[in-house]
Each structure stands twice: as structure tokens, then as C-alpha cells.
Write a structure and sequence with these properties.
Elements (H helix, E strand, L loop, with lengths): L1 H17 L2 H5 L2 E8 L6 E2 L1 H11 L2 E14 L4 E12 L4 E13 L2 E9 L5
Parallel strand pairs: 1-6
Antiparallel strand pairs: 1-2, 3-4, 4-5, 5-6
Length: 120
């Protein structure tokens, strides 16, 4: 069970780094909430689609996961890592992050992100 939840989280980051925004949003429950510094809570797939499809300041890059902790019975996971990429204005960025997920039936229902500096 822990392996399945860990695989779901790894798949999320792989999708964000390699696929289009519609594929990313499909990984979220229709009523999901995403909290991210600098933005109001993103509630539901329409808000997530607007964010990933245009509002998000990241143009491209990759996430490197350094730690992944899962509590499968509770459907919770915590991730620490760093993001390396480029913003839409062309600026190169490397930023540390921590993410906290709630997952139900293989879909993300809640996500909260923290960064080690104001950047993305």
C-alpha cells in the first residue's frame, strides 16, 4: 500500500515535468484544493487548469525528490526536494520545496506547497 501511494506521488511529479497541464489536472480529484504561497487557494479542477495552463510562472523544468514519506492508511504523503528550471520570463531558477498531499482513490484531494525562498 505504501508503494502504491509513493508511486502516485512520483507519477504526479513526472507528469508535471513531462506532460501537458490537462494531464496534470486529471491527477486531482474534481473538488481538490491546492495551496501555494502567493496565490489564493486553488479549488477544483477549473482553478487548477487555469493555474497550470497559464497562471503558473514556470515554463519548464524538473523536480528532484530528496525525501518521500507516506502514510498510506491515512492517504497522506510529504515530499522534500528541489526544482530546477526556467520561468516564463527566461530566468533560470533552482528552489527547494516541500509538498504535503492527501490522496483518495488514487487522486490528489489536497496539496500544500512551501518554498525555501520567494521565486515560483
Amino acid at each position: 500500500m505504501n508503494e502504491q501511494l509513493a508511486a502516485t506521488i512520483r507519477h504526479y511529479y513526472h507528469t508535471v515535468d513531462t506532460a501537458g497541464h490537462e494531464a496534470v489536472v486529471a491527477l486531482f480529484h474534481p473538488d481538490a484544493v491546492y495551496r501555494r504561497p502567493g496565490y489564493p487557494p486553488l479549488e477544483g479542477r477549473d482553478a487548477l487548469l487555469a493555474f497550470y495552463g497559464g497562471v503558473r510562472v514556470i515554463a519548464s523544468g524538473r523536480h528532484e525528490l530528496q525525501e518521500l514519506l507516506v502514510d498510506a492508511p491515512a492517504g497522506r504523503a510529504a515530499v522534500a526536494g528541489r526544482f530546477l528550471g526556467h520561468l516564463k520570463d527566461g530566468t533560470a531558477v533552482t528552489v527547494g520545496f516541500a509538498d504535503f498531499f492527501h490522496v483518495r482513490d488514487g487522486l490528489i484531494t489536497d496539496r500544500t506547497t512551501y518554498f525555501d525562498r520567494a521565486a515560483v
